[in-house]
Amino acid sequence: NNVNYNDALVAKKGREPRLELLKDGKTISLKDWGNQIVDNLLPIAAVLDSDKKQYTKVADQMREKINDANQTLSARLLDKIAKNNMSFLELGESIGEANKMHYLNQNQSDNPNWNLLEKEAIDSHNQQKRLEDNNGESFESFVENYFKY
Questions:
Q1: Across the chain, how many H-helices and E-strands are there?
Q2: Distance (Å, rounded) from C-alpha 30 to C-alpha 36?
Q3: 14-43 residue pLDDT tens
Q4: Domain coordinates of the chain in residue numbers?
């Protein structure tokens, strides 16, 4: 169907400036369709907006990304990889480390969910240990066996 086709096409070739998608049996450029969607969202954003016009601003930001692929998150990530001569794995590790440090440097009192998250982490580790103890298989072994198929 068109949704799966368009999704796969954008995933593989979404950075191509003249990418054509299928819509209602006809082709349409990714940019044109994206701008049509933003046009349709603007009246809704206007209704939801307060004095700050936050929803309209977000719609405008999306339009900028539609019209200039260099403004997208994927472009910024690819740029970081190129500038720092790093792999995707290294990029993921650096993002993970930056997020870790961000949250470790926050005051616990600034996060109303801190105790819940801490409890969830402890419960998760306990559940993992129980699962490993019950069947004698380590997590690493489970993952290895899982990917054999």
A1: 7, 2
A2: 10
A3: 889 899 999 999 999 999 999 999 999 999
A4: 2-110, 111-149
